[in-house]
Amino acid sequence: MAQLPRGRTLALTAAAVLVTALGLAPAAVAEVDLTGSWHVLVHYKDESTSHPERERWLDRLWVFEEKNGKLYWTEYPIVVFSDETGRFERRSSGQYARVLGSWEPSDSQLANIQAGLQVNSRGSKKKKLKGSDAKGWASTYRARPGSASVITYQENWSVTGEEGLPVFLQEDVMSSARTETLEGTTRYKTRAVESAGDVLVGSYERDGTRHGSFRMTRSGGAVPLKKRDQREIQADAARRSGLGDPSPEASGD
């Protein structure tokens, strides 16, 4: 089970078990401190698209904070690297989009992750999670529509443990006074802990149609996106001339 806030310490107990076929005893338990910032990279395939065989990717920044026995989880879906090489491309329509395939950060981009990534606050979300080590941690807010004709939307997030490793769950719920329907579920299940607790790797699933893997890498922190005037944005666009890579803040992504 996930070992979360105790006093000022937030830790998840990760038991690394060696291959059973080798007849080896379980390895020592290692503690993973979740507090701080993490770059989350996902590689997946989407069965619901016209090209389900294509590799795709997405990334975001997660920030975990422990305050007064509560766990605060913030997600930034737009991250900006100093070097955006290999991440975006200009399509024939003139718009920038993510490159298809399985983008992997270069050495300079890994250094950028370790130093801290810029984040765009647009689309960011923050949840307060309550709970215990025994039962796990979850956001507890429940929307209560006043009538059957009113539809509400909410997201429920949780961090629990399976086989001693953390599982991150994000659920989308649509509800009215009479019904409640689960519209979407995203599940990140940790399979292994690496680099002395600074890297978590595991499986990713979204709505039963997106399947793949994720890697969480500890990051130096979330840095507010630098504001730029229109002249700087246009100058960047002119320099790229359709051959370079975009800055998400310039393209509006």
Q: Which keywords apply here?
A:
253 residues; mainly beta; ten-stranded antiparallel beta barrel; globular; disordered N terminus; disordered C terminus
General description of the model:
The protein has about 250 residues and is mainly beta. It is built from 3 helices and 17 strands. The protein has helices at about 105-115, 230-240, 250, and strands spanning about 10-15, 30-35, 35-45, 55-65, 70-75, 80, 90, 95-100, 115-120, 125-130, 135-140, 150-160, 165-175, 180-195, 200-205, 210-220, 220-225. The protein has a 10-stranded antiparallel β-barrel with strand order 3-4-5-10-11-12-13-14-15-16. It has a 3-stranded mixed β-sheet with strand order 6-9-17. The chain is globular, with a radius of gyration of 20 Å. The protein starts with 10 loop residues before the first strand and ends with a helix. Residues about 1-10, about 15-30 and about 240-253 have low confidence and may be disordered.
**Strand order, largest beta sheet:** 3-4-5-10-11-12-13-14-15-16
**H and E string:** EEEEEEEEHEEEEEEEEEHH
Shape: globular
The secondary-structure class comes to mainly beta
Q: Which residue ranges are poorly predicted, with pLDDT under 50 across at least 5 consecutive positions? A: 1-10, 13-30, 240-253
Number of helices: 3
Give Rg in angstroms.
20 Å
Distance between the terminal alpha carbons, to the nearest Å?
A: 37 Å
Question: What is the total tally of β strands?
Answer: 17
What fraction of the residues are assigned to beta strands by DSSP? over 45%
Q: Major sheet, described briefly?
A: 10 strands, antiparallel, barrel
Helix coverage percent: under 10%
Overall pLDDT metric: 79
